[in-house]
Amino acid sequence: MIGHEGDRNARDAAERTARQSYGKLVAFLAHRLRDVSAAEDALAEAFSAALADWPLRGVPEKPEAWLLTVARRKGIDAERRRRNSNAAAGDLQLLTEELAESTADANEAVIPDHRLALIFACAHPAIEARIRAPLMLQTVLGFDAATIASAFLVAPAAMAQRLVRAKTKIRDAGIPFRVPERTEMRDRLEPVLEAIYAAFSEGWSDPAGTETRRRNLADEAIWLGRLVASLLPKEAEALGLLALMLFAEARRGARRSAAGDYVPLDEQNPELWDARLIDEAETLLLRAGPMGVVGRYQLEAAVQSAHVARRLTGATDWAAIARLYGALMELTGSPVVAINQAIAAAEAEGPAAGLALLDTAAADARLKEYQPYWAARAELLARIGDNAGAREAYELAIGLESDPAVRRFLQQRRGALRH
Amino acid sequence: MKYMLLIYSDEKQWQGLSQSETGQRMAAYRAYTEALTKAGALVAGDRLQRADAATTVRVNNSKTNVLNGPYAETREQLGGYYLIEAADLDAALSWAARCPGASHGAVEVRPIWTM
After folding, report:
1. ipTM score for this prediction
2. Minimal C-alpha gap between B55 and chain A (Å)
3. CB–CB of A303/A339 below 8 Å?
4. Which CATH number belongs to the domain containing residue B84 in this structure?
5. Which residues of A touch B1 (CB under 8 A)?
6. Does the residue B100 lie in any domain?
């Protein structure tokens, strides 16, 4: 497919620039045009122009500025067409002048970074929650709808339609491209972090690592997390989320044995954990601590930190983990957290303490269909010698699990029970 | 941009208010209208008569059907509106949140179609 050397260099340069600057360029144009779709369209045309032009004339000295100039011209053309079709001249002249003015900026090679503003627009409360993460992946990272759809296990046509609808909403409802003020930051940052974490969880939920696209999703979520943390270095929860994702990512390779069997966290070999990612995560948590805002991501990251401390101390501090889950429980009231708290309490104080917490949590009916609840219950019942009860709980856990490796693990545990 | 703030609330709940409570609510609306005016954001605004004063018209095959009552029977009814000028959705949402209707009912924020 690739012709001669120059062609390939041009292609490589275009692709490198795409990777590094796509989001920045979309953000810049969307900010100007107040329209994400128009910005994407203009940029797509600029990239195809680059592929035609660069192999002939060589890669320009400032590829970003070149792309922006072309994209801006295309953007103005499109805007003109759109406005004409709407039979309104509007402030087109003003827009053209403003864009020409910013061309000067671009040529000085400092393209203002509006990516954070774009991210806040994507995760605006007026945007449907489930489309926020896909929207960020598309606008900031340039993924096409089909790739995003396959990562989120959604039909491509449905995903494409949702993305278009969300971008139309941004334009028509006048959702602003701006970083929220200090006073509203906490409320507005939450959906941003939530969307990034949702993308990460999607990618994380493929433990076997067989589906490359889903694995990439975890990487891309970390990339977004890094971006937000670097642009908002004083937001403790942004740092906390990045730390949490890095702690999890560090253990990716240790979650399965060589034979593909599930390995629970406390049985994982610490030598398989990525020490570099753990160190980075620890540093982030230490930086977030003194900011005085404790939130769920920092607490969850702190739990992870306590778990991985085993690589240094050789033992897990379950009492500390139970306390952290207790704090998380107060903050979120989540039944999922309650289960983890029960498991930690069982390790720290004995199975009876854990079972008591599980009984309290069971008031939430949703847990009846939640595999980890039954697995935890089975484990603790086995420890107090109630093998019949444990067998029954394992049976339910196995029936509710979709991952074959985890199912095998649960079956082995049930098989190991004495009759 | 122009936005319409559509105020929906339970008319029965209005009827159940004491005289002083009604007075308080009306005063809150007056203050809100005043704030919008001072900020230069108010384009128009009105309170509507009760939904049972509504008549709905639909023309099918040149035949005009007139129905007694509002277009949709809902627990909360459209009771008034403000047409405002705001820089963007966030500014409009912040005005909507200050509207008394957001506390005793709900306010729908709709951008105006620009021609």
Report:
1. 0.82
2. 30
3. no
4. 3.30.70.1060
5. 174
6. yes
